[in-house]
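Bit of a strange request maybe. I'm writing a small parser for structure token strings and I need a real example to test against, not something I typed by hand. Could someone generate the tokens for this chain?
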Amino acid sequence: MSASPTSPADTAAGTADPDWLRLDRQICFSLNAASRAFNGVYRVLLKDLGLTYPQYLVMLALWEHGGLPVKRLGELLRLDSGTLSPLLKRLESAGLVRRERSASDERSVRVTLTAEGVGLRGRAREVPRRIAAATGTDPAEISELRERLDRLTGALDAAVRELEQGPAAR
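Reply from user aminoacidic:
Good idea to test on real output. This should exercise your parser:
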């Protein structure tokens, strides 16, 4: 198959680079493909725990931080309430978490682990090791990749803020 055609404007401006429009040149596609591959491995590993990957992330946050307001949990996981609420409802139905409204502020809901949710942590300890093994990379490479992805995320978040401000703010 031949390369993508370029527009006459691109050719005239000397900016024609058809390789930039190839699917295999898109970092977003590579990240999405890697994410889907990770989700496949997590799906198999988390099956015995009775968790989906998003539920696992909720549990990780609660195991690390203890009880959290739903708003803070959403911030940590980068999830909106429309996505987080059904996750919490399923985890509560499974007996792993409890949601309680604040007595001082009816709008605030705090999520805490049940005894069963705390106990699940011991069974989950093997998951990160098995994920690391599945990547075929050593811990130092994984740490470096995570740091690079965190920097990329920060740069993209900043770009969104700048773009949302519009041309008048620049």
